[in-house]
Specification:
Layout (H helix, E strand, L loop, with lengths): L2 E4 L4 H11 L5 E4 L16 H16 L2 E11 L20 H15 L5 E11 L5 E13 L15 E3 L11 H7 L1 H15 L3
Parallel strand pairs: 1-2, 1-3
Antiparallel strand pairs: 3-4, 4-5, 5-6
Helix pairs in contact: 1-5, 4-5
Length: 199
């Protein structure tokens, strides 16, 4: 059985990834087991750039196959912002709540009635030699709420209502979110790749 390092220290994200990949036939390893491995600087111009950069760095540092993702929220009225800067939108040390607050205030400043937005996720897998083996993308369209709602999920989840639902990602049951979210869609494709990988 191959081992796959999950290249994230975000507990919410690790839980989501584990839920979807647990039946992939791979042994999932946590980054928390490698205290000395540094997280690379995310200076790519796209989600794919950042996901690949992280997967390669973690794979080479640990000698394992490694998975990493990058994702962001793109708000139409903000010309696609925060986008690739979603995690750093309110500054490096800002909390999820700080980022949500900034997003809502920036959206209010535009005076736009357009609340449409989409979440985009890219998941990359690299081999121990740093070679990129697979890149998968997932997109989930929806709208932004006027105020945060719900206590599940993480990041911008309390602000985002996916099309076809009237609850935010933070209000939806985990089993539904793990079927329709941007990261879920990218991970489902990743799981198919992992299952087809020669043992």
């Amino acid at each position: 059985m191959h081992a796959l390092l999950l290249g994230s220290r975000n507990p919410g994200k690790v839980k989501e990834i584990t839920n979807i990949l647990e039946d992939s036939g791979w042994l999932l390893c946590l980054l928390s087991a490698f205290d000395d491995v540094q997280s690379p600087e995310e200076n790519g111009e796209t989600y794919a750039d950042n996901a690949i950069l992280k997967a390669r760095a973690y794979a080479v540092a640990t000698g394992l196959f490694a998975l990493a993702d990058d994702s962001g929220l793109e708000v139409a009225a903000l010309a696609g912002a925060p986008g690739v800067f979603s995690a750093r939108y309110a500054g490096e040390s800002a909390s999820d709540a700080d980022r949500r607050e900034l997003l809502l205030s920036e959206l209010a400043k535009t005076g736009s009635k357009d609340r449409s937005a989409r979440f985009v996720a890219v998941v990359a897998i690299a081999g121990p030699d740093g070679k990129v083996l697979n890149v998968s993308e997932g997109i989930c369209e929806g709208t932004i709420t006027l105020t945060p709602r719900g206590y599940g999920g993480f990041g911008y989840d309390p602000l985002f209502i996916p099309h076809g639902y009237d609850q935010t990602f933070a209000e939806l049951p985990e089993n539904i979110k793990n079927r329709i979210s941007h990261r879920a869609l990218a991970l489902i494709k990743t799981s198919e790749f992992l299952k087809s990988f020669p043992s």
